[in-house]
Amino acid sequence: QVQLVESGGGLVQAGDSLRLSCVASGRTFSRYAMGWFRQAPGKEREFVAAISWSTYYADSVKGRFTISRDNAKNTVSLQMNSLKPEDTAVYYCAAQYYNRDYARMSDYVSWGQGTQVTVSS
Predict the structure, then answer these.
(1) Which of 37, 47, 57, 76 fits a disulfide with 62 by CB distance 3.0 to 4.6 angstroms?
(2) Is residue 75 helix, strand or coil?
(3) Which residues contact 29 (CB under 8 A, 6 or more apart)?
(4) pLDDT by residue (tens digit) across 4-55?
(5) Nearest-CA neighbor of 68 among 115, 2, 19, 13?
(6) 94: nearest Cα among 50, 53, 55, 45
(7) What is the dihedral angle through the alpha carbons of 6, 10, 14, 16, rounded to the nearest 10 degrees?
(8) How far apart are CA 91 and CA 40, in angstroms?
(9) What secondary structure does DSSP assign to 28-56, as a single string?
(10) How far is 111 from 49, CA to CA, in rounded Å?
């Protein structure tokens, strides 16, 4: 399994942009579909975006967030534009095998430690 490390979080104002990155260890990164989840204080972790045979987004971020990957760099990124205070959360990168449910946390086999994103109003 891969090990994942996120970066790029921070404190921004509403309307700003951030780009999160997740670097995977190992030489089998291309064999995994990748996802981003987030967990706000007092709430359950929720699906944000995934990239496998296609890209998938939660309704709450569709049109504002873009997920991408660079297999040569073992990296998956999440470009977040037009950020809102409700986007404040710890963001987690996760890996799963292909042909699994991209929105189901239990279908992911590896998780990063998370990176904090705080959006002020």
Answers:
(1) 57
(2) strand
(3) 2, 71, 74
(4) 999 999 999 999 999 999 999 977 999 999 999 999 999 999 999 999 999 9
(5) 19
(6) 50
(7) -70
(8) 9
(9) -GGGEEEEEEEE-TTS--EEEEEESSSEE
(10) 14
Provide the pairing of β-strand 115-120 with 55-57: unpaired
Spatial contact of 56 and 103, defined as CB atoms under 8 Å apart: yes
Tokens of 102: 């991209």
In this prediction, residue 27 carries a pLDDT of: 75
Task: Give CA–CA dist 73/88, Å, rounded.
Answer: 27
Q: How far is CA 90 from the centre of its chain?
A: 10
Integer Cα distance of 67 and 43 in angstroms: 23
> In this structure, which amino acid lies at residue 35?
G
Q: What is the DSSP code (8-state) at residue 72? A: G
